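subagent[fold] <- orchestrator: predict structure for attached chain, return tokens only, no commentary.
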Amino acid sequence: MIPVSLLVCVMAGWCAVYLADTLLKSSVTHRISYESWLASRGLMLSPFHVRWQTTMFNRLFAYCARINPRALYLWFNSGLVFGIVAMLGSVVLLTKTLQQTLAQMTTDNPRIGGQQALQVVVPGVNLPTSQLAYFFIALLLSGVIHELGHAVAALREQVRVNGFGMFMFVVYPGAFVDLFTTHLNLISPTQQLRIFCAGVWHNFVLCVAALAFLFLLPLFLFPMYFTGAGALVTEVVQGSAADGPRGLSVGDIVTGLEDCPVRGVEEWSSCLSHLSHTPQTGYCVPVASLQPSWAHGRPYKRLDGTMDCCSNNSLTDLCFSYMKTPGRNSRERELQYACMPVRKMVTGTRVCRTDDDCTAHSHTASVCVTPSLENQTRFIRVTHPPNTHMLFVGYPPHLQYSVSLTNFVPRFGFLHLDLPVFLETFCKYVVSLSGALAVVNSVPCFALDGQWMLNALLEATLVTVVTDHQKRELIGFFLLLAGSALLAANVALGLWMVTAR
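subagent[fold] -> orchestrator:
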């Protein structure tokens, strides 16, 4: 469900703005001056919507439209081709997303929802409040670049731009350009198509540019940060499995999980996934250490059928199992259990699967002891030199959610740990939001770019096939109706899945 506090703040803010606007417009003494003030600044207010429009950027748009006419012609023709392909692709993608949403509604498998390419984003629900700034800035940037494409393409086709503006609808920011409709109606359908496709084309280019920047980020930050040395801890969740005096701290560099080397965040995640789906590793311990210097607890079965032998709930002891070496009167090996001090047993020891792994790398008689744990629980040694190992006992995903990590390690002490994280996160939001705007605006739907793209495409291609203009409009109407229904169904069901569950 949507957080009540967020909903109350949004509603209270808009109610205060709308109430002040209503009072000033109904005031006899302030109405004229207030309306003049709004008009002089290009402001318009309505319930849950505020809009600002200006002509100050018209010269910039005109300058961009005069840069290398030949290159711009090829640029916007490429956008025309991309827009047509994107229109078809968006319908296919939305159809597939709708099928996945319907499948998720009839199943309890959470993995199906994670496979969706498009999801409805609701701040405070499936968007962390700590990342709202990333979301809104990336969304506004994507909208500005989108409208910049429309404006430059329009001026290149000799269509006047009345102005550029920004708006806020509820909590979502956006941008727009006001084109002179008379000029727009006088140009050919192909010219119109270049203008209408320019927005989604620029969103696609922005998406690719952000991806390239994200890929080349280690190169850009090389003078200040280096990578490949491990995963740097930037945050530890208080009270989590990684917190504590012998846990992880901000600034630690994790270099390994058990025998799995960690060179970055990707290896950290893959190692945890590997450890989750493989049997618990053992540790090579000299046979002499298994003498009864520690109390051997009496083994008993847990509810899940696994064995335990530590009955005192000690935080320093753990139950280990091992195969006892056969004596003179017995040829069969026997499984034994012993409750031992865990840190002393596993510090500096080699991992193993069988006793043969220990004898192959040791000149002394050694045995492979394995922590006796519940089925999905794992014992994991986290290497973060120069500190001693952090010892974790639990479900591996809990360890993954306990810390935030980055691949970038600062070369100098004065550099901030979060700068690469900020750049990475912002680029990822730009990629996802600019790509989503390109997809959504390509859909043949009423009130979106797809409506004008489809109408211009039909006028450019069906003139010789369907000569009657009204019939072409009727074909376009039904196609737009189908596209609008498809988009509305995705938004409605996606919103229900996000807020109702």
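orchestrator: received. Logging for downstream: The radius of gyration is 32 Å. The chain has a mean pLDDT of 89.
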